[in-house]
Amino acid sequence: MEPLNNSRLSVSKFFIIFGMLLLGVGMIFGLIGAIQYIIPGYLKTYLSFEKVRPLHVSLVIFWILFGATGGVLTYLQEHSGRPLYSVSLAKTQLFIFAITTLIILASYVAGSFGGREYWEFNPVLALPILVGWILFIINVTRTAKSWKGQPVYWWMWLTGAVFFLFTFLESYLWVFPYFRENIINDMTVQWKSYGSMVGAWNMLLYGSSIYLMGKISGNQNYGHSKIAFLLYFTGLFNLMFNWGHHIYTLPTHHFIKNISYAVSMTELFIFGRIIFLWQKSLTTAMKHYHHMAYRFLVASEVWVFLSLLLAIAMSIPAINVYTHGTHITVAHTMGATIGINSFLILAFAFDILNNSCVNFDGFKNQFNKAFWLSNISLFVFWLSLVAAGILKSSWLMSVDRTPFAAMVYSLKPYFEVFMISGLFLLSGMLWILYLMLKNQLRCYFRQVLGRNISDSSI
User: Fold this and answer.
1) Where are the alpha helices (DSSP H) in 221-316?
2) pTM of the full predicted structure?
3) Is the pLDDT reported for residue 357 higher than 80?
4) Domains of the chain (ranges plus CATH)?
């Protein structure tokens, strides 16, 4: 489990670098969308909201997929002590993903759609993504020496990769008339697939985070422990069955909702485990506070706590009736996507990209400021959405409703806080990305052009 040579820009590093570029652009489109909440018609001629939203969503989702892939491919090699089964397959996957992503973004700008929610592009463009992901699964399964005696994080990588493929295919069942022509079945399958899909990429990220924590502490015993596998099977159980809270409002079979509710409550075990280990986590954080990767792991744990608190509440049918379709759902999504997924990938990036050319340790002060700016801004951002969601849910359940326009106007102060905190969040994240990407560009030009670039500063 020796770290790979950090001085070389490998294909797995390029996955992370390309993903960071997508995150930066995706957050800019997110800020534009927030401004359009406050100033209706802003940039409507060139970038109307129906374009900005899928641009933001798709860029962030591809950031997660690129970052998760880069992390798994790197840590898979470190864990096994072997090179990838096929670097050519990894390069082909990177090329397919990069080209397809750019085509998808161009199609959005041109106003060409045709898909559903997460995947609003023409369904034909899903085919190269499917091919690229199959190449990824081949590398994951063939790189390991054996399936026997593998730690929990390897099983999480395998499970996440396979289940993402399954849920990705499932999310396109709507192209068949059998599903598309029955609105209840169509919505049930769609919402189910998206809920499980998030659980699939979470498996990839959580597996890499467990490996990284063991790598930092110098002890990988947790990856083989009984409690680790118990938490893994709890997460796997939730991945497969904890999607029913998405369909509480649909007139579908009650037993599906009841099973889902029971499964949702198993998250309390994870929730209690986080609380139990909280003091221990703080102690470990104190020991490794100098390590930026570990600081992002600790930050993600805080957001796991907050997101689970909100998710468990949303999984209770009596509460879900109020929260469904409000900004509380958006708050949960944003908290999980940025606070958990993005912070975990940034932790991987700090670990994997550090020392590529210039050691990040010389820039602790800048990274620390950007780190706190991002976290504090995200918390305010999250609270503003929760507050707006509570007010909207109160309006939805009110007997004497005010006009919809009046309700939306009353939420304007919360949207303003949402937009301003989003601006600070964007600033903090771009600050981090700028420092990391500039270092990688120097490394790239040094290797490709052979130039002697001074290491004195970024």
Assistant:
1) 226-241, 254-265, 267-276, 278-287, 292-315
2) 0.89
3) no
4) 266-458 (1.20.210.10)
